[in-house]
Amino acid sequence: MALTSALKAELVQHLKDLHLPTIRECYAEQADKARAEELAHERYLLELARREGEVRRGNRIARLLRESRLPLEKTLATFDRKRLPARVNQQVEVLLEGSFLERHENVLAFGNPGSGKTHLLCAVGQELILRHGRRVHFTPCNLLVQELLIAKRDLRLARVLKRLAGYDAVIIDDIGYVQQNREEMEVLFALLADRYERGSVILTSNLPFSKWESIFKDPMTTAAAIDRLVHHSVILELNLSSYRLEESKKGKAAKG
Ligand code: ADP
Ligand code: MG
Q1: Does the global pTM surpass 0.70?
Q2: Which domains does the chain have, with CATH numbers?
Q3: Contact (CB, 8 A) for 215 and 128
Q4: Mean pLDDT, all residues of the chain
Q5: Which of 243, 244, 248 is the pocket-test mutation for ligand 1 (most atoms within 8 Å of CB)?
């Protein structure tokens, strides 16, 4: 027997107050189905709870993807993992499990330009959101540095660092690509120090550690930065030829 219209209105109001929009949408239809199939009350309730939960999870994932600023076209599905050395593939498999985030481990990817560092780490970042509902934030290093500098100038640096601390992983793409001055280096160092043992840093670089003095200027700061990053870390060595170059060669070969 369906509800009277007065009771229906009351139910809808409760569901509104309790923020259960999906149940509000589907309870009547599911009630008809439950009556027709003679389902137990608990089965009906279970179905409603499932649907509400599913929609919520979906919304949360969509929001996390949006807020991550990840280039979402760089997916794992479009990344050719056969190009990776077996060891790196194993490391990627472990990263995809996501537990490194709980241990606040860092991921450092090194390799020539075009070897696929950015694509691979963006793909991993996206999977961490999709599979584990993790909070991930992607930013090119030079953009991040500019953002931190502006924050510092406006006396908001602590606040911005706190916001970034809310992410399980901050992906810093292409550290050392642009030469930085001392002030720029200092805010970058402040971020790394802030995240140390509190949240993962995932970064890519064309520069091996031996050239990092050009990023952090003096040997002491360079050593301190490397020390913090490496202490709990996974290092991916992508010593590969450029994917772009190979693809363009293949294209030319195919054309004749
Ligand atoms: P890096 O960051 O190391 O300079 P990118 O990740 O930007 O390299 O890769 C350069 C280009 O080649 C991108 O368009 C990327 O999508 C593509 N690419 C690189 N490696 C692969 C791969 N293994 N499978 C598919 N596309 C790749
Ligand atoms: Mg890159």
Answers
A1: yes
A2: 5-67 (no CATH), 71-248 (3.40.50.300)
A3: no
A4: 94
A5: 243
